[in-house]
Specification:
Number of strands: 14
Number of domains: 2
Largest sheet: 6 strands, parallel
Shape: globular
Mean pLDDT: 95
Low-confidence stretches: none
Bound molecules: adenosine-5-diphosphoribose
Number of helices: 11
Helix content: 40-55%
Distance between the termini: 35 Å
Structural class: alpha/beta
Strand order of the largest sheet: 3-2-1-4-5-6
CATH topology of the largest domain: L-2-Hydroxyisocaproate Dehydrogenase, Chain A, domain 2
Length: 311
């Protein structure tokens, strides 16, 4: 039986579950949360939509990790959003405590799973999940690149009027300030992005992409984005269960690619059975390569903060 588990039945988790169920690509999607009744209620609701949507995948809502046993893929969304008055370190400590405890439970019941981490701060949480799980690093990776690339593509489409499905947009590096957009690999209806938009306009769109999450938070006031993020996480899980081997931007463990190692960084990788199958090194301009190297340094510094926590 094929099975995907999503940890956390909040906005991100439940929307990811809904997408996976409606795609009908596995027998079962398990959703779990610390709040009793929440995953059960949402699962019942999604299951009752099946006659209308036409899908068969069953969603199991539970507070018991035993129900997650033998999952092929586990997506970790559990965590708290940053609250007023909370410092970055406070948030790091809260979410690190949550991610550590859920990862321990996950691998206890699914020792052969592939883990996809989406909880923020993404780079630290992916590193922590990899360390705590003891899984090989290619089986643990994080979601950020598809989302950032997808936001970038949306902004390019808005600006150019080009069909959204005819845009290839690429961002690498880290989620946030050290995100590295890669205009040299971006195409609009087959043409290089630089032939379609002037450098100033590209810079503006890059800046908007970098702050893409914050723009949505400012509208929502409470909570953060989840439609595009859940599409990205579900897509990664699909690539694994279908063993697609598709090249997608993910937060992957670097082992010397682009001269960078021992850090989780956003790069393009072939994703399929077993997780990250190969990091693909596309040619970058000097400026883009320098941006990626800077992002690696910034992520390493952030990850060092994990060592200061008493978990
Ligand atoms: N085990 C399981 N679930 C937990 C735990 C835990 N130890 N701690 C918290 N949760 C659950 C909460 O009960 C809540 O239902 O995680 C869920 C988080 O949901 P939301 O607050 O709606 O947050 P969401 O928008 O889903 O974002 C989740 O993804 O994008 C990131 O920054 C975001 O880190 C955040 C995560």
């Amino acid at each position: 039986m094929s099975k995907i588990t999503v940890i956390g039945a909040g906005k991100y988790g439940s929307t990811t579950v809904q997408r996976l169920a409606e795609w009908d690509i596995v027998d079962e999607v398990v959703m779990t949360d610390i709040v009793e009744g929440l995953p059960q209620g949402l699962a019942l609701d999604i299951n009752q939509s099946r006659p209308v949507t036409g899908h068969r995948t069953l969603v199991v809502g539970t507070n018991d990790y035993a129900d997650t046993a033998q999952s092929d893929v586990v997506i970790i969304t559990a965590g708290l959003p940053r609250k007023p008055g909370m410092s970055r370190m406070d948030l790091l400590e809260v979410n690190a405590t949550i991610v550590k405890s859920v990862t321990e439970e996950v691998v206890r019941y699914s020792p052969d799973a592939v883990l996809i981490v989406v909880t923020n701060p993404l780079d630290q949480m992916t590193t922590l999940a990899a360390e705590v799980s003891g899984l090989p690093r290619d089986r643990v990776f994080g979601q950020a690149g598809i989302l950032d690339s997808s936001r970038f593509a949306h902004f390019i489409s808005e600006k150019t009027g080009a069909d959204i499905q005819a845009i290839d947009a690429v961002t690498l590096g880290s989620h946030g300030e050290t995100m590295v957009p890669v205009p040299s690999l971006c195409k609009v209806e087959g043409k290089p992005l630089g032939d379609v938009l002037d450098p100033g306009t590209i810079d503006d769109l890059v800046e908007r992409t970098r702050k893409g999450g914050a723009e949505i938070v400012a509208f929502l006031k409470t909570g953060s984005a989840y439609y595009a993020p859940s599409a990205a996480a579900a897509y990664m899980a699909k690539a694994v269960v279908q063993d697609s081997g598709e090249e997608i931007p993910v937060c992957a463990w670097m082992t010397g690619e682009y001269g960078i190692e021992n850090v989780y960084l956003g790069v393009i990788a072939k994703v399929g059975a077993g997780g990250v199958q190969e990091i693909v090194q596309h040619p970058l301009t000097d400026e883009e390569a320098a941006g990626l190297a800077e992002a690696a340094v910034a992520v390493k510094e952030k990850v060092a903060d994990l060592g200061e926590l008493d978990l």
